[in-house]
Amino acid sequence: MNDTTQDSLIPYDEIVQEALRAVVGRVLGQVEASNGVLPGGHHFYITFKTGAPGVSIPADLRARFPDEMTIVLQNKFWDLGVSDTGFTVSLSFNQMPAKLDIPFSAITAFVDPAVDFGLQFHAMADVESEQVSPAENDAERDVASRITPSEDGSNVVSVDFGKKK
Fold it and tell me: Angle at Cα 89 formed by Cα 85 and Cα 91, nearest 5°?
């Protein structure tokens, strides 16, 4: 038997991240289908990398949030559109309307506080940069998936494949 874990030739981490991002797309698609009406007390906090490929936001917002930004979809949003690769939404910032185009690959967190549900993602740019980093000793890698429970007991899922702690 071999005590070292072999590197996977199947990109499990990418597959899981993509599947979890599809959850966000499906939820937003249901809201779009209901003409932007959120059911019950549901509302969403969506965090994304502002500099990620495909993100389109006004220049003043990019200047204020050069790395990451969180938007809230609750009461005042309109023109929600969802595609296979991302979504567009219009929001008001300091009483100025702004249209945002956000690919699902740029999302780093999705939270629905009404039901203590949340997902955390690695930004796709982070995943790509990890793939080009020098290989490390296979014996030191922990390739098990870890679901990290939130300290407050909420249902936040964070999946981490083979990251050194």
Answer: 150
Q: What is the DSSP letter of 10?
A: S
Token pair for 151: 């300290």
Helix (H) or strand (E) holding 26: helix 12-33
Q: Give the C-alpha separation, 128 to 27, whole Å.
A: 26
What domains sit in the chain, N to C, each tagged with a CATH number? 12-132+140-158 (2.30.30.220)
Contact assessment for residue 162 and residue 141, using Cβ atoms and an 8 Å cutoff: yes
Query: What letter represents residue 121's amino acid?
Result: F
Query: Could you report the per-residue pLDDT of 62-74, keeping only the tens digit for each?
Result: 999 999 999 999 9
pTM of the model as a whole: 0.73
Paired tokens of 52: 């990620």
Q: 163: which residues sit within 8 A by CB, 6+ positions away?
A: 142
Residue corresponding to tokens 């990109």: 11
* DSSP-derived 3-state class of residue 15: helix
According to DSSP, the residues that pair with 96 across neighbouring strands are: 93
